[in-house]
Amino acid sequence: MTTLILHRTGPGTSVQDLGRSGYLAQGLSRGGAADPIALAEGAALLNQPPALAALEIVSSIEVEVTEPTWIALTGAPKKASRDGQPLSWNACHRLAPGQRLTLGAATEGNYAYLHLAGGIETPQQVGGRGAHLTAGLGPTLSDGMRLPIGPPPAPVQRERALPSEDRFGGGEIRVLAGPQTGLFPAEVLERFLATPFIRTAWGNRQGVKLGHEGEGFRPAGGLDLMSEVIVPGDIQVTGDGTPYVLGPECQTIGGYPRIATVAPQDLPRVMQATPGARLRFRMVTLEEALASHRAIERVHEDASGQLQAQEANPYHNLMVHNLISGVAIDIFDNKDET
Amino acid sequence: MKSDQETGFPQISPLGIDGLLVRFADRFDDSANRAALAFRELADEMADVQETSTSLGAVYLRFDPHELPHAALMDRLRGLLAERNWYNAPLPANHRIWRIPTVYGGAHGPQLDATADLAGTDADSAIEELSTARLRVMAIGFAPGFPYLGQLPERWNLPRHDDLKTAVPPGALCLAIRQCVLFPAQSPTGWRHVGSTAFRSFRPDHDQPFLLQPGDEILFPAVPARDFDRLTEAPHGGASCEPAQ
């Protein structure tokens, strides 16, 4: 069996998959990758299902494999190298035993993903492999640890790359009204939607703190609410009026009022927004949100379709060469190579 | 009995892109909790609803909005809500009654004496009352497997401590605001630590990781401190479980 050797694993590195569903009534939130789009893209690059587990990396790592293995790098772009030679991002590469793969500082964004053909096959716990830190689930990674890799998918693999959608610089985030939106006076909600926010440095898989100028956002009638169901994407306002966007590892019920809920297709952009990035919220109707919403399986299918279309193109080999080596024409306007 | 016209409840609202929340009240109310537990039992049987959960007074339903339009599910839920008075519904038919042996006071419940004093009683009477109270799992949340249990008589309407410096061990039975909570793992808390059990409501490495369901009922019968080690060896911390019917 192939093994991934973690020579160096920086703080915050964890095994992640699409999370555990079906346990909300028992107080366990779904969890899973902070950027599930990146998980789907990596799976498409390696021709495998999006449910396989990958490494989620917030700092830096140095790893090695025991058998020749295809890997993919997605999510927040990091300086990546194989035995000191730079590797392109949002692409898959071959890693031979003995070669060292190093991922360094992120150039932008927060969560990078290292996928391996066959997926990480650490033991399942409560129906999933991902670390759920607040629930104490998933392996705690440390230097020198070895993680089992599953059998690689059958089809012949080749080097290829996906255009990278920029979801690291913040921008406009679509939000939906929720059961507690009406607790906020109309002028407070209006001010919330007109306020430019900063993604602060305080953020983790449970949520992201937003910064802004001026007074906080308070509901009418105080804070003595009954604890209510929470979903990821909820924008919770604490006692001092500071908003937090809740992440995949949020609590399942809570007593702070929620002013709105981020549409799931935009939540990865909040989780990935580089600290200091500007965010602005736009209220949309359910219909508008649904029109642009795709389940993660669809995101995976679309990415796979895009890769097939590339391969059907007669210039494919040239394009891939350029993408992978990062020289000559940069057809997808990637910014991660110089 | 309340009418919809008086209170505006039950209310159905979208929550996120793929959920609906059916709320039976906006302030804690025992009948709203019973309504939520009973209505969830029904919602759970809908084939096109992917998952349900409850908070103290509401039911959450998650579904695929591309397959099942919000309006269609809302219509169906309105019909079901109108079928009966949910506020006096019985607890879910499949609920169970747990008896979880508990050591009260001393090192196992260091705040028992002070808590009894605040409630205007003494430790022995408090143990008698707490060990015979039949409490309902009103909701599970805050942490995985963490039950909110209610409801104790008015004398137990004691505030939680503001200071969260004290950590309680796994299995700790704590109380405040007419509710008990049972800690699945060590945690700092403002709830008042009155007893200890060897029961673990969340066991990540078991086939059945969660033991309690919202709607279950629990009694915490008192056992002597010398029995505690034996309970830690026993399956489910010595707890018994039987169907309510």
Automatic annotation (TrEMBL), chain A:
PANTHER family: 5-OXOPROLINASE SUBUNIT C
Pfam families noted in UniProt: CT_A_B (PF02626)
Protein's recorded name: Biotin-dependent carboxylase uncharacterized domain-containing protein
Keywords: ATP-binding, Hydrolase, Nucleotide-binding
GO terms of molecular function: ATP binding; hydrolase activity
Upper lineage: Bacteria, Pseudomonadati, Pseudomonadota, Alphaproteobacteria, Rhodobacterales
Domain Carboxyltransferase: 25-299
Species assigned in the record: Aliiruegeria lutimaris
Transmembrane segments: none
Keyword Hydrolase: yes
InterPro entries given in the database record: CT_A_B, Cyclophilin-like_dom_sf, PxpC
Automatic annotation (TrEMBL), chain B:
Entry superkingdom: Bacteria
A matching Pfam family: CT_C_D
All residue ranges annotated as the Carboxyltransferase domain in the record: 10-212
GO molecular function, one term: ATP binding
SMART domains referenced in this protein's UniProt entry, alphabetically: AHS1
Alphabetic keyword roster: ATP-binding, Hydrolase, Nucleotide-binding
InterPro entries registered for this protein in UniProt: CT_C_D, Cyclophilin-like_dom_sf, PxpB
Protein name in UniProt: Sensor histidine kinase inhibitor, KipI family
Organism (species): Aliiruegeria lutimaris
